[in-house]
Amino acid sequence: MKHKDGKYHSQPDKGVKIVPATLLVFVLCGFSFYLGGIFCSEKNKLEDKTVHDVSKDVPSTKEPAANPLQIKSIAFPECSIDYQDYTPCTDPNRWRQYGLHRLTFLERHCPPVFERKECLVPPPDGYKPPIRWPKSRDECWYRNVPYDWINKQKSNQNWLRKQGEKFLFPGGGTMFPRGVGAYVDLMQDLIPEMRDGTVRTAIDTGCGVASWGGDLLDRGILTISLAPRDNHEAQVQFALERGIPAILGVISTQRLPFPSNSFDMAHCSRCLIPWTEFGGIYLLEVHRILRPGGFWVLSGPPVNYENRWRGWNTTVEEQKSDYEKLQDLLTSMCFKLYAKKDDIAVWQKSSDNSCYDQIADPDAYPAKCDDSLEPDSAWYTPLRPCVVVPGPQLKKSALESLPKWPERLQVAPERISDVPGGSASALKHDDSKWQVRAKHYKKLLPGIGTDEIRNVMDMNTVYGGFATALIDDPFWVMNVVSSYAANTLPVVYDRGLIGTYHDWCEPFSTYPRTYDLLNLDGLFTAESHRCDVKYVLLEMDRILRPKGYALIRESSYFVDAIATIAEGLRWGCHIEDTEYGVQKSEKILVCQKKLWYSSNSNSS
């Protein structure tokens, strides 16, 4: 061995130490064996003790405990009448806690668990069951959405008008005073693809009362109307009260909860989004969610500035500069001006990936996004000032490559191969399964397929099978994919359906009383290890309309516990067998929310 002095010294004789070392090894092994026996014995005692405390046991999602989960009955109190329009994650009472920069305060900011409400949100005084579709598109009960501000501020633009006990929706808007029908007619002249089934899914940013999305329903185009909870009070609530798909949201600092390359069209009608500010980061998000070949439609400033600038409290030079900046920014993102007439301009996102070679230069702006962030990552994911370039494998996902609607619904999308275990045969199997289930569900709930049910949510869809099986019924479905589940939402959009990412450990981005039917398929089995069953059911109660329904297909382990909580929510429930008859492993809970009024209300 070489020591610090650099000299080598002879080793001492190791033979003398062999016997003591061997003995030491045997002693340590015996001692560890003794300790292990004690530990295992105590562990078994602990397991025997906890098996009997079912209410505290967290079951495996793969092998539920044999004995059903039992919990104590609970009666939830009423929330104050002040909570009649409570939106937990976009609560105006919490806005002051968050910044004004880029309207961050309007984004989702959910309360911590210790601040979550364990009470039932009451309806407004005088609430009535909503007017049924399609009449609801043109009118709704004033007492269901009793907001005078929007009526006073927007009645001159024909957004809506209060008349007696109702709000009427003439179909007007800031940029379409002659009515939304004439506005969309002009748009279809500019975009013929809106007429032949090519364009099927759309998003309307800053949607007002969703008249644009409502008009498109008759033209075979399914639109998500997006608006924040802002000083207009209830844009999204008005939309859903009318029976038009909508969700609370804002393009601010986080990505919208949608996958990349999904919408066929995006629309902004004087939505007041500063598209060219902050490096064009808001427009970059529109680029991300718009599929190759998709259209972006803008009406309002700075389009048609030559004739409109006097009414915008600006100068013609400023508006010309804004339009040129917008055009340059869109060109840098591989958009091309497709058509323009009067107040409407249309750009199309390129389907040719060679266009993106121009941003390969490190000095280019906006630059190409690197591979550190998934294009579909969209749950609390920060916006980034870079271009999400569609992958070369998405050739068949470009708008012109997709089958036209309704053929598109039945064709296995290219992106199903990105889902673990996904394939054309897996999609066919899922569709067949839901066809059988849908027939059974209609027997359990005869209101399905009638005008009694309009706004529907599939709370944990896979490929949109529930919506596909009932596609001919007079309702629309918001397909929700868990942010923790396999990413199947791109497949849902490629089929011509709509949906969103969500985590059911948190409240959903909607107003109270906005859905007629909630469909669940093993949600609690999949999520109970993360999410408190009680809070999920409280959220379901918040978003269900009075007299609305929940179809809860669940492991028998959870059914009794869910029924107990539902009783505390004032729901009426009954347990039914599945379409396969009597099964011990799985049951269907059919529930209906009752109409009740706050004890402080004048209604009875």
TrEMBL record:
<dbReference type="InterPro" id="IPR004159">
    <property type="entry name" value="Put_SAM_MeTrfase"/>
</dbReference>
<keyword id="KW-0735">Signal-anchor</keyword>
<dbReference type="GO" id="GO:0005768">
    <property type="term" value="C:endosome"/>
</dbReference>
<dbReference type="GO" id="GO:0005802">
    <property type="term" value="C:trans-Golgi network"/>
</dbReference>
<dbReference type="GO" id="GO:0008168">
    <property type="term" value="F:methyltransferase activity"/>
</dbReference>
<dbReference type="InterPro" id="IPR029063">
    <property type="entry name" value="SAM-dependent_MTases_sf"/>
</dbReference>
<keyword id="KW-0489">Methyltransferase</keyword>
<protein>
    <recommendedName>
        <fullName>Methyltransferase</fullName>
        <ecNumber>2.1.1.-</ecNumber>
    </recommendedName>
</protein>
<keyword id="KW-1133">Transmembrane helix</keyword>
<dbReference type="Pfam" id="PF03141">
    <property type="entry name" value="Methyltransf_29"/>
</dbReference>
<keyword id="KW-0808">Transferase</keyword>
<keyword id="KW-0472">Membrane</keyword>
<dbReference type="GO" id="GO:0016020">
    <property type="term" value="C:membrane"/>
</dbReference>
<keyword id="KW-0812">Transmembrane</keyword>
<comment type="similarity">
    <text>Belongs to the methyltransferase superfamily.</text>
</comment>
<dbReference type="GO" id="GO:0032259">
    <property type="term" value="P:methylation"/>
</dbReference>
<keyword id="KW-0325">Glycoprotein</keyword>
<feature type="transmembrane region" description="Helical">
    <location>
        <begin position="21"/>
        <end position="39"/>
    </location>
</feature>
